[in-house]
Amino acid sequence: MEPVSNYIPSDSLNLFAVSPKEDCPHEDLIDFQAVASHLVKEKLKAACKDCNATHENWMCLLCYDVFCSRYSNSHMVKHNEAKGHQIAQSFADGSFWCYSCDSYVYSKNFHTLAIKFSTIKFPESTSDMIDTDTLAKELSGVDAEHRAQEKDEGKGFSKKELIQGIKEKKFKRVIFLTGAGISVSAGIPDFRSESGIYAQLGQCDLPYPEAIFEIAYFKEHPETFYRLAKAIMNYKAQPTIAHNFIRMIADEGLLLLNFTQNVDGLEAEAGVDPKLLIEAHGHLRSAHCAVCGKEYSVEDLKKHIQEEKIYRCECSGPIKPDIIFFGEALPQSFYESVVKLAQGDLVIVMGTSLRVFPFASLIGMVPAEVPIVLVNRENTGIKRENFLFLQGDIDERLKGLIGELGWNEKLNGLRGENKL
After folding, report:
1. I need a labelling partner for 329 at 20 to 30 A (CA). Which of 90, 101, 388, 400 fits?
2. Position 176 confidence tier, pLDDT thresholds 50, 70, 90
3. In what helix (H) or strand (E) does residue 79 lie, and over which residues does it extend?
4. Residue 364: which H helix or E strand, with range?
5. Cα–Cα distance between 189 and 183 in angstroms, integer?
6. Does 313 fall in a domain?
């Protein structure tokens, strides 16, 4: 992951809520059809042109050469400085970075490339997602408005079908894609307000705000993150109705997986089996040395954090909770589980903008025949058949849905269990 100037910690402890720029002026310099022709299996395995590094490489979208990230030997950064080539795509998660905008970038063209990337990186689950002709049309814009209109006018998926399908257990492999929005009502202190946690970091003398979540900075200055971690751990948040709804689906034996962007662990706190959670940005339930990777007790780490003492490994490296910092690869479990998106029979999206990679590409891996339900304040841009949008406050919409399912007593039991 590249550091971003527009990095915005969310109000619900999603430490990596990156908002891509959707109007990058340098997009016009890219020949997207040519990029797609270079985006092949062999290219994804290519080493850095300058140092032969193979970890977290990027492809320049103007000359198609491959260089390593700034967390390796910074050759993509140096390539931008030498050639002025602004935009590159990550081979780690498929995201796009513009060096001139100093931001992740996103658009329909980038999204289509992300799907092409996914078909190569995850062939087991995406082999039928998009064919060559469709890809060419998407990248050239041919009939794009007509196809969008067809989708809007296609057969929708009704709330009645959703309720009936869950009640009668017609849906047996439900997948959730969740983000920061499902934890807002948990009352976790925000990062952005004048009195929030993030404001307290002004006295930490950070070179730039996002440095607190960079692995290289953490290795040199762990005390800054420890200060933030102490503030986080001192707040006792409880699962929301959204977390409990996931738990109820699991209790019915209907949950296949819950992909989440959050690190707050409230899904597990609600009683969802961690084996059913794919926490793309990690969690706080375990800890390892940031240098050698040796595992340590998270309880011992918490004790050190509360005492404001740096917990160090035998190798002298600082111990960190297992959340993913900028400069670290996403958990292997994430990549291994992506193939299961093709196995679900219902996908429920809650509290995520679907603009944060790698989640931005996950929705495109859902087969066309599988219904998608979005519970959010606004439509994040999903246009397809078999789609239901439940607009509004997430907990309020789910409370109504739970009532129609006849699960109010179950909800009250879980809320009592969670001491809400």
Report:
1. 101
2. very high
3. helix 75-83
4. none
5. 11
6. yes
How confident is the model at residue 379, as a pLDDT? 83
Structural contact between residues 10 and 191, judged by C-beta atoms closer than 8 angstroms: yes
Looking at the fold, whether 174 and 250 belong to one and the same domain comes out as yes
In whole angstroms, give the CA distance from residue 197 to residue 9: 10
Do both 103 and 51 map to the same domain?
A: yes
Residues 76/49, Cβ–Cβ less than 8 Å: no
The DSSP secondary structure of 245-298, one letter per residue, reads HHHHHHHTT-EEEEEE---S-HHHHTT--GGGEEETTEEEEEEEETTT--EE-H
The answer as to whether 19 is a domain residue is no
Look up the pTM and report it.
0.72
What radius of gyration, in Å, describes the C-alpha atoms of the chain?
A: 22
User: pLDDT tens across 234-257, in order?
Assistant: 667 889 999 999 999 999 999 999
> Which has more pLDDT, 365 or 399?
399
Do 247 and 310 lie in one domain? The reply is: no
For residue 146, being part of any structural domain is answered with no
Give mean pLDDT, residues 41-63: 92
Say what angle helices 132-140 and 108-121 make with each other, to 10 degrees: 160
231 in the same domain as 244:
no
How do the residues of the chain divide into helix, strand and coil, expressed in percent and rounded to 5? 40, 15, 40
Q: Can you give the pLDDT at residue 200?
A: 57
Contact criterion met (CB below 8 Å) for 59 and 79: no
DSSP state of 196: S
Question: Domain tally for the chain?
Answer: 3
For the segment 111-122, the average pLDDT, to the nearest whole number, is: 78
Same domain? 125 vs 224: no
Q: Are 59 and 40 in contact (CB under 8 A)?
A: no
200 assigned to some structural domain: no
As annotated, the active-site residues are 281
Statement to judge: residues 394 and 310 lie in one domain: no
Domain span at residue 226 reads: 210-236+286-323
Q: Are strands 96-98 and 103-104 parallel, antiparallel or unpaired?
A: antiparallel
> Which residues are bridge partners to 60 per DSSP?
88
| Residues 6 or more apart in contact with residue 25 via CB below 8 angstroms | 101
CATH of the domain at 111: 3.30.40.10
Q: Which of 300, 323, 346 marks a domain boundary?
A: 323
